[in-house]
Amino acid sequence: MARIKLSFPDDAFTFVTEMPVRISDINGANHLGNDALISMLSEARAQFLVSHGIQESDRDGTGIIVTDLATMYQSESFFPEVLRFEVGLMDFNRYGGDFVFRVSKAESGQPVALAKYGFVFFNYLKKQVVPMPDSFRSRFA
Asked: What pTM did the predictor assign?
């Protein structure tokens, strides 16, 4: 199986947040676990949305649902390092697009991972994919 190769332009990233690697994020190999990094990506995405005044779901039940995730690991990270998460949006379509992430060590700048989440807008009450709201599209697309 071919390895995933991710590459994003620098101008794709419009938001930055930092998070420490917690002791509970460390796996049996004594480095940041895959599951913990995915949780941190979700937190970075949530902070990005909050910084733009966007809630995870609207009153009508429409929110964002992740459709796929690709992660390319570049180096290990350890407790208690602080990681820098750069977040952006790209590759929009009628229903969603991609959240993109660049993760590095805050102190040294050493790359840790690149990742992307595919997403669509989903009405949780109707249980169906819905078009991207105009308010979201006009702000980011």
From this structure: 0.95
Cα–Cα distance measured from residue 40 to residue 35, given in angstroms and rounded to the nearest whole number = 9
- DSSP letters, 57-121, are B-TTSEEEEEEEEEEEE-S---TT-EEEEEEEEE---SSEEEEEEEEEETTT--EEEEEEEEEEE
Q: Fill in the DSSP letter of residue 24.
A: G
One-letter amino acid of 48:
F
Q: Which tokens go with 93?
A: 């379509």
Q: Which run of H or E residues covers position 40?
A: helix 34-51
Q: What are phi and psi of 53, to 5 degrees?
A: 70, 25
Q: In this predicted model, what pLDDT tens digit does every residue of 35-60 receive, in sequence order?
A: 999 999 999 999 999 999 998 788 88
